[in-house]
Amino acid sequence: TAATLLGPAASYAAAGDPPTKEEIERIKIGYENIQYLLDNWEKETTVCRENGGECKRDANAVRRYLGLRSTTDPLFQIEKVFAKVRFMDDIDPEKLDAFFEATEDWNSAMSMSNSMAFISQFGEYNPGGGKDEVLKYLNEAQKQVVLAEKSLKVILDCVTSTA
Question: pTM score > 0.85 for this model?
Answer without folding.
Answer: no
